[in-house]
């Protein structure tokens, strides 16, 4: 069975075609600048290399049609016809409380996703665009929705309720949802396999550290807490997001700077984080380079970031009453030995001791702690697309 995995953003579309017989990647790519002048597709197939296709994409339907044409193209395609595609798995960011697992998409599901759009106005509408487009272009083909929030639906009530008047939860569903759930679930399962244990017997802290970042407490294979909340703004400092701040700062800044709520929301989501502190970039590679050259604000941004992650690891170890391993994944977690070492520095009391030689690795599954560590530090490259494909396969 061959499954097409789609991840639709507001002006982009990432995809992978996966052969589930061996979980082999047959093709992947990204369509960019959808609805904007200069749109293009970067496509790569297993046997026919890479190609860049510059073509107008007025909307996601155009983009998906161009992706499908690329997949069956005689020169750079991966399949002979679209009939080889058995199902489509869609990444959906927010499932609210309606979905605690992946679901086969039907009209009732679509209606529920439309209701959830107000909880994720930047993410769910593009996800829905991809679903609508597939309904038109690939009518009758089974589709599955896989939710970023679903893995965290196992959080107990005292982890997800905010200390606000309870009627706000009852009336508006204001609560902590958490995100990156597909990634947290994938790396937790892989870490258990690497340790040769059942995930049900482990207490793990999983750290998805990219431009967007979150930490999850995974006890017995279930998420019991996570750093992101009602939106992906809560928690860690990130590339451009502020993460945890005193809520009173918002009204203070609105008064002092004369901002309305839209301007302030833009500041907190797009101008803060390590970009705001460093003044250099939201890309950690640029910040690390600037810090090495003596830029004190760049160094401060890195120190602040590392400390926030460390605080969550310690908090979740206390919450779970123990810790077997800390798992690092995503762009920074996979590719920065320096950040992994800085975050783990001072966690020796939890049994984590970094082996410098083992830690000197990027993007490769490995245990990077010393032989006498009682808590393991593990690097696991995430693969959300494969996880979505597996969920899709299980349902169709």
From TrEMBL:
Binding partners and assembly: Homodimer.
List of residues binding Mg(2+): 7, 384
Positions contributing to substrate binding: 91
GO cellular component, one term: cytoplasm
Listed Gene3D superfamilies: 3.30.420.40
Alphabetical UniProt keywords: ATP-binding, Cytoplasm, Kinase, Magnesium, Metal-binding, Nucleotide-binding, Transferase
Function: Catalyzes the formation of acetyl phosphate from acetate and ATP. Can also catalyze the reverse reaction.
Record InterPro entries: Ac/propionate_kinase, Aliphatic_acid_kin_short-chain, Aliphatic_acid_kinase_CS, ATPase_NBD
Pathway: Metabolic intermediate biosynthesis; acetyl-CoA biosynthesis; acetyl-CoA from acetate: step 1/2
CDD domains on file: ASKHA_NBD_AcK_PK (cd24010)
Family that this chain belongs to: Belongs to the acetokinase family.
NCBIfam families with a match to the protein in the record: ackA
Binding site for ATP: 14, 208-212, 283-285, 331-335
Protein name in UniProt: Acetate kinase
Entry's Gene Ontology BP terms: acetate metabolic process; acetyl-CoA biosynthetic process
Cell compartment(s), UniProt: Cytoplasm
GO molecular function: acetate kinase activity; ATP binding; magnesium ion binding
Enzyme nomenclature, EC number: 2.7.2.1
Cofactor needs: Mg(2+); Mn(2+)
């Amino acid at each position: 069975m061959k499954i097409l995995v789609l991840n639709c953003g507001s002006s982009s579309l990432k995809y992978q075609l996966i052969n589930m017989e061996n979980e082999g990647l047959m093709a992947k790519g990204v369509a960019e600048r959808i609805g904007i002048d200069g749109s293009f597709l970067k496509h790569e197939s297993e046997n026919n290399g890479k190609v860049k296709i510059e073509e107008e994409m007025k909307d996601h339907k155009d983009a998906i049609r161009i992706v499908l044409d690329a997949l069956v193209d005689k020169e750079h395609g991966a399949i002979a016809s679209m009939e080889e595609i058995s199902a489509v798995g869609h990444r959906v960011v927010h499932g609210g409380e309606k979905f605690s697992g992946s679901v086969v998409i039907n009209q009732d599901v679509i209606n529920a996703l439309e209701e959830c759009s107000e909880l994720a106005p930047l993410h769910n509408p593009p996800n829905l665009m991809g679903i609508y487009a597939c309904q038109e272009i690939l009518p009758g083909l089974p589709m599955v929705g896989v939710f970023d929030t679903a893995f965290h639906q196992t959080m107990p009530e005292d982890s997800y309720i905010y200390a606000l008047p309870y009627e706000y939860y009852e009336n508006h569903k204001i609560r902590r949802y958490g995100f990156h759930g597909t990634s947290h679930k994938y790396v937790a399962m892989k870490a258990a396999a690497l340790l040769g244990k059942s995930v049900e017997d482990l207490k793990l802290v999983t750290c998805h550290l990219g431009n967007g970042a979150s930490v999850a407490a995974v006890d017995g294979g279930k998420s019991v807490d996570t750093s992101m909340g009602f939106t992906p703004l809560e928690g860690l400092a990130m590339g451009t997001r502020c993460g945890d701040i005193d809520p009173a700062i918002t009204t203070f800044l609105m008064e002092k700077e004369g901002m309305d709520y839209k301007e302030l929301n833009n500041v907190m989501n797009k101008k803060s984080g390590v970009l705001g502190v460093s003044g250099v970039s939201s890309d950690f590679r640029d910040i690390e380079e600037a810090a090495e050259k003596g830029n004190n604000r760049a160094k401060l941004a890195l120190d602040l970031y590392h400390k926030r992650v460390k605080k969550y690891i310690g908090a979740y170890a206390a919450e779970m009453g123990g810790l077997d391993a800390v798992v690092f994944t995503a762009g920074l977690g996979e590719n920065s030995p320096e950040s992994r070492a800085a975050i783990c520095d001072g966690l020796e009391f939890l049994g984590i001791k970094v082996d410098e030689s083992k830690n000197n690795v990027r993007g490769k599954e490995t245990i990077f702690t010393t032989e006498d560590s009682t808590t393991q530090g593990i690097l696991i490259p995430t693969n959300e697309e494969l996880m979505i494909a597996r969920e899709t396969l299980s349902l169709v």
